């Protein structure tokens, strides 16, 4: 079998087609068959008009077109037309070329393996750094939560400390505000009658400072605290209001103390960061 391998060219294909047509015109038709990447797409025949049927099966990724022309003397000629640059697979090489090919493939595999090892080491180090950073963030978050709790506790202790000191030095302070005093003593827990509930909810709040507190004012105040404080803090908030009511100077002192604690807390956070 004659063997011809070369890059694909239209001139070569046209030459083979014209050859088959000419032989058929003089009564010497040649059998031929065509393959695309070892897939026979035109079966063995002697009709030149079927020659270009192979074009229906050529794909962008097709590697070669093989045209085999058979003679009546049981010989044939094979044309392998390469559609893509051929990469030697080692099976078609012999002697020194085969040894060189094997060695090159071995070196490529070795280099690829070493590269994978380097990539693995780098990724492993990056993962460790990410885990360390994540742990640092968790520790920092925990410190901030603890600091936040301490700051919140300090604010509460400061305000309640002022209230406690004032009430200790002025035991009759609540007595001067009987309505709120009764509420803090548990009077608010009593069940109001239907009429009382209507009156309390419908009564209009004062539009200006009076210096006097009645039962409706106290009930409205405690109701107003419900959206702002959980139940365990409402009574404490009422105590603070009583403190401020008895001596307005405590408002400025408490505000200044809270602002100071907030400033100290922010400074600590910046230092820690």
List the helices and strands and how they pair.
Layout: E1 2-7, H1 10-25, E2 31-36, E3 39-45, E4 64-70, E5 76-82, H2 95-169, H3 178-184, H4 194-202, H5 215-225, H6 231-246, H7 249-272
Parallel strand pairs: 1-5
Antiparallel strand pairs: 2-3, 2-4, 4-5
Helix pairs in contact: 2-6, 2-7
Key descriptive features of the protein:
7 helices, alpha+beta, five-stranded mixed sheet, single chain, Dna Ligase, domain 1, 273 residues
Short description:
The protein is α+β, with helices and mostly antiparallel strands and 273 residues long. The chain contains 7 helices and 5 strands; from the N terminus they run βαββββαααααα.
Shape: elongated
**Poorly predicted tracts of residues:** 183-202
Tell me the number of helical segments per DSSP (H or I, 4 or more residues long): 7
Average pLDDT confidence is 78
Give the domain tally: 2
What does this structure look like?
The chain has about 270 residues and is of the alpha+beta class. Helix content is about 60%, strand content about 10%. It has two domains: about 1-80, Dna Ligase, domain 1, CATH 3.30.1490; about 135-270, no CATH class. The chain has a five-stranded mixed β-sheet, with no helix packed on it. Strand 2 and strand 3 form a beta hairpin. The longest helix is centred in the middle third of the chain and has 75 residues, at about 95-170. It is elongated and about 130 Å long. The chain starts with a strand and ends with a helix.
